[in-house]
Amino acid sequence: MALTIMLEVGDIGRFAEVGNYSSYCRCVRSTRISSGKTKGEGNRKNGNKYLFWAYVEAANFAIRHYSVVQRYYQRKAAKTNGVVAIKAISHKLARASYYIMRDQVVYDAKKLFQ
Hints:
Layout: H1 2-9, H2 18-24, E1 33-34, E2 37-38, H3 49-65, H4 67-79, H5 82-103, H6 109-112
Antiparallel strand pairs: 1-2
């Protein structure tokens, strides 16, 4: 999956901020809210569907194999539901991978899932 992510992203410098990258990966919602009212879901399908798939798969893998991530998933799933919890983990992984690619640092799960 790392190879898929690297090939689909290309140059990480084209994303000004981490929010732009996570939006491109379809890890955040595209709803527009004004005064508590939903104004639509503009550009819901914009972004890269392959990056979305890769991060959801990485989240499922992390839940199975890392106890820190599994505890976070259980806390989040107890508050909402399983799909939202997996989506939250994929968003965290997308943010972490942005910084890893941009700053050329090593991944640390303890920083991510405290």
